[in-house]
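Prompt: May I have another protein with tokenized structure?
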Amino acid sequence: MPPDTLSLTLYIGAVFLLSGLVKGVVGMGFPTVAIALLGLVLPLAGAAALLIVPSLVTNVWQMLAGPALRVLARRMATMMVGVAVGISLTIGVLTGASSGLAQAALGAILLGYGVHGLWGRGFVVSVAMQPRWSPLVGLVTGLIAGATGVFAIPAVPYLNAIGLTRDELIQALGLSFTVSTAALALALAASNQYSLATATGSLLAVLPAVAGMYAGQRLRQKIPPATFRRWFFFGLILLGLSMLAKALHSAWGSV
């Protein structure tokens, strides 16, 4: 294996190990961390394709482990439809020639997500308002996911605001991320961005992802999740600023 290929392989393995670690400690963040770090060395469409299998494995695991899958599936149905529609509308940004636009969008999303996680105020969406908000939140989440590969915003803040118990919230996040990942996989395949070689690499990435998740669950017992969560969001801010700077530098250089 050539040195450059070996270095890239080791880097990708480390990214999935770290992403699994984050998910193991705080219960989320796997696709966000992975797409951000992979996007520093790979085209975002390729990074999103590598993410598919490990993201599905970890999120299906999380989705099936909770107490109320049927109830949550009915409650979130219109949101999930909105996610699928949104991804289909903007997948051309992620897979097209405007890689700088996708990278800038990802940087802005990471920056906003980090700032909201550290300093944003919580809000509540009443039961009466949820039928109106759910499809809109799903659509916006899908539009962002199709353009950047990240499907946490605004889905995560919204699910935190609809009055779920802790176990229901973790399961709802697993359901949301599972559907989003599956929709993204279908959109990438339809755009000829999900080859057999990429699928094989994605399958191999499951090993470090699961190892990281297991280590994170063990680490959760020693480090307060709130402390780790703060560092997680601070890291997203730094990654977002880095990707924005890189995109701006590329755009400036092409002028």
Notes: The two ends are 38 Å apart (CA to CA). The first helix runs from residue 3 to 26. The chain has a mean pLDDT of 86.
